[in-house]
Write a structure and sequence with these properties.
Length: about 140
């Protein structure tokens, strides 16, 4: 290929009329540059997150172990308390006697109510029969 030789005036004219914003090469370079900037931003954020994680991980591990141990102890104490209360209730014979009395009194009241209703019904029937014979 041959060489094209331009003098300074021609080069200046070309530079003045050339629109750099319309250059496909420059537009692609801008896109690549934006992607590189975003990647740098992501890398910086990722490093910051990693540093924070390294800093707080031992603290979180200590808290986690403490919480699990406390929960286990609390749960064991709660189960022990419930077991004692169940034993106390089952040993309390007065409570069983009281339940028996309440159940029996409920049955007696129900029977007495039925008996009173029957007596009232028989009384009404007797009065009606007497009224029929009087007339």
């Amino acid at each position: 290929m041959g060489k094209i030789v331009l003098d300074e005036k021609e080069v200046n004219e070309l530079m003045d009329t050339f629109d750099f914003n319309k250059s496909v090469y420059l537009q692609e370079l801008k896109k690549v540059n934006e992607v590189i900037e975003k990647l740098d931003e992501i890398q910086t954020t990722q490093k910051q997150i990693t540093d924070d994680l390294i800093e707080f991980k031992p603290i979180l591990l200590k808290l986690q172990d403490k919480d699990e141990k406390e929960m286990s102890l609390s749960y064991a104490a709660y189960l022990s308390f419930i077991g004692k209360k169940i034993d106390e209730l089952s040993k309390n014979s007065n409570l069983k006697k009281l339940e028996f009395i309440v159940d029996n009194s409920s049955k007696i009241v129900g029977f007495a109510t039925l008996k009173l209703g029957l007596i009232a019904a028989i009384g009404v029937i007797v009065i009606l029969i007497l009224n029929i014979y009087k007339t």
